[in-house]
Design brief:
Organism: Sphingomonas arvum
Radius of gyration: 25 Å
Pfam families: M20_dimer, Peptidase_M20
Oligomer: single chain
Number of domains: 2
Keywords: Hydrolase, Metal-binding, Signal, Zinc
Strand content: 15-25%
InterPro entries: ArgE/DapE_CS, Bact_exopeptidase_dim_dom, Peptidase_M20, Peptidase_M20_dimer, Peptidase_M20A
CATH superfamily of the largest domain: Zn peptidases
Strand order of the largest sheet: 1-2-6-3-7-16
Structural class: alpha+beta
Number of strands: 18
Protein name: M20/M25/M40 family metallo-hydrolase
Distance between the termini: 47 Å
Order of helices and strands: HHHHEEEEEHEHHEEEEHEEEEHEHEEEH
Helix content: 25-40%
CATH architecture of the largest domain: 3-Layer(aba) Sandwich
Amino acid sequence: MIGRLLALAVAAFLASPATAALTPAEQRMAATVQAENDRTLGLLERMVNQNSGTLNLAGVEAVGRMIRAELEPLGFQVRWIPLRETGRAGHLVATHKGRAGTKRLLLIGHLDTVFEPDSPFQRFVREGNKGHGPGASDDKGGVAVMIAALRAMQAAGTLRGANVTVFLTGDEEDAGSPQAIARRDLIAAGKAADVALDFEGLVRENGQDMGSVARRSAQDWVLTVRARSAHSSGVGGGSGYGAIYELTRILDTFRRELPEPNLTYNVGLAGGGTTAAFDAGKARVEATGKPNIIAPVAVARGDLRALSAEQIARVQAKMQSIVAQNRLAGVTGAELVFEEGYPPMAPTAGNRAILDRLNRVNADLGLRAMPALDPIKRGAGDISFVAADVDGLIGLGPASSGDHTAEERVDLPTIPLQATRAAILMSRLARERR
């Protein structure tokens, strides 16, 4: 009964005026996505039920094998790039060679999630039109959309001539170190491509699907302050103020003087006292001290997010000048260190042109145009590592809520919607001359 209702729904869709602008091959893609939706959801469930927290290297590899089994029958040459030396599992890369001289597409997603094996959140549960589970959207839902779109292209014959590289990282949620190795192959793939499409989630605002042509950077920083220690009876006098007061001065000056458009600055962890130090993962700080001792050390850690390399360089220089200026009495040193991070993806004319192409697909499907999303509403991601070399578009995955929490839910009807959009967009781009 369900299959018959689905067939009727597909027939009604293809008979509607909205699809009149679609070619027969594009109508075939739309029909295939709908007809295979149960298969796609089955793949999503299997992926979600396999834990692939970034640090679960075997789990990440297992999800990679699931995707290999999907791509090889479509004619992709699939290889696994092991990266144990970075502390991570590695990446899956699949290539499909098509007609010479046509645009080369790079499809980006990731196999890992933020939920490690010790998380109580481990299984996929269907809740009506929602799928509840770890990574159900971010990014296993996006990978499911990608596979559904490629299968639709295969069924319609448009994959045959397409030059496509699928690049699924195993450490998007927590990149391996050093990044020079962890992102080496992704950067090389970007240099070899003409268009990059990111299959992380679709953002909706008040029911409106949004297009994403930019995303901000993400870079952590560590601040360490040292000062003379003494009895608290001398605080503010000859003994100075100690490290905690100086740390507070610096952080509050950041708060007052750094704000500008598209920039956010956060303090996520701080501590000070007679001793203060981060653990190996810099996720905890251990401090000791007493109320009657002027603190000789204080530390803080946070992140910085910006929209362009120029903005990052300028803000970092301003932060360093704040650290260096007008130190309180008794301070013996202050050091601000910026760690490796995710670069920004600036909103270029080339990126906007790809969104325009997607909106022509939307028009031919009878869907509303997708306005460009404010980049401050989008987190960092892997496509930013190739943004300097290739035009790109973000958000080809499904809509969701609660990502990175135990409330993560994917909007299941947006999986076939996004797969249809992606299949038609990729087919049109893939036949264009370079």
